[in-house]
Design the sequence.
């Protein structure tokens, strides 16, 4: 399979698994189980992102199983390919929903554990993954960063990229307030580049929120008009549109994804 084909395969599988297509979840969990039972087994590169996301979002393995797999990968990573696999694993923690799992990864950013060679860059990646994950993982990461800011900044080479990503992703007042508290409390301790990124993040986050507030009514009306819940009832105000249009599209899309990915994880 050529590079483009592998890229499309990986993207299709990721979409199917992230969306919860059962066949994809079953195949992903089969690969995870095999990887846990056989340390020499390597999950195919083009589906690693999808499989690791399933491991965190729809885990069949226990939390201990997830952690054991990660630590095995981290401790044995020596080649560029193995390090890339660790990077994909860390990126996938943005899919996590389990509080214990989040606490484990965040603790890695404030403690040096014997025998666990995690780098400064990998610690940064944990925050970037959680910031990019969803509002819950973002807020959890921000609160942990605020509470342990001095230790985190000591162990990380730079927090500039973290502030930049927060500016890009923050979309609620509660997230904005945590960021503001961090900058107010620790701004004087930051390097010039990190302080500039933090100040810019506050401006960008505020713009994000104002844009969402300004357009929320129009967005909500559009979703209702398009019957985003697949309701058989006409939308309020006599809105037009095909009944069950979104429900039909979702079902059709899921079926298409299932057919496309049916044998991709084998």
Sequence:
């Amino acid at each position: 399979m050529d590079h483009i084909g592998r890229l499309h395969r990986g993207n299709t599988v990721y979409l199917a698994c992230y969306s919860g297509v059962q066949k994809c979840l079953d195949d992903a969990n089969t690969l995870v189980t095999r990887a846990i039972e056989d340390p020499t087994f390597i999950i195919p590169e083009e589906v690693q992102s999808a499989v690791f996301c399933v491991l965190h979002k729809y885990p069949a393995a226990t939390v201990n199983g997830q952690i054991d797999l990660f630590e095995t990968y981290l401790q044995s990573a020596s080649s560029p390919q193995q390090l890339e696999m660790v990077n994909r694993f860390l990126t996938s923690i943005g899919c996590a929903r389990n509080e214990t799992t989040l606490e484990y990864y965040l603790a890695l950013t404030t403690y040096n554990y014997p025998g666990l060679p995690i780098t400064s860059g990998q610690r940064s990646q944990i925050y970037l993954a959680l910031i990019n994950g969803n509002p819950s993982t973002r807020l959890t990461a921000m609160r942990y960063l605020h509470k342990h800011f001095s230790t985190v900044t000591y162990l990380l080479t730079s927090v500039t990229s973290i502030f930049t990503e927060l500016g890009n992703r923050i979309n609620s007042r509660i997230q904005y307030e945590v960021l503001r508290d961090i900058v107010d409390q620790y701004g004087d301790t930051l390097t010039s580049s990190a302080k500039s990124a933090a100040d810019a993040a506050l401006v960008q986050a505020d713009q994000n929120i104002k844009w969402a507030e300004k357009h929320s009514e129009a967005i909500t009306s559009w979703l209702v008009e398009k019957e985003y819940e697949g309701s058989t009832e006409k939308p309020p105000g006599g809105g037009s549109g095909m009944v069950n249009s979104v429900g039909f599209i979702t079902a059709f899309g899921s079926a298409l994804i299932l057919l496309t990915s049916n044998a991709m994880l084998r």
Observations:
- The mean pLDDT is 81.
- The first helix runs from residue 3 to 18.
- Residues 177 and 208 are 14 Å apart (CA to CA).
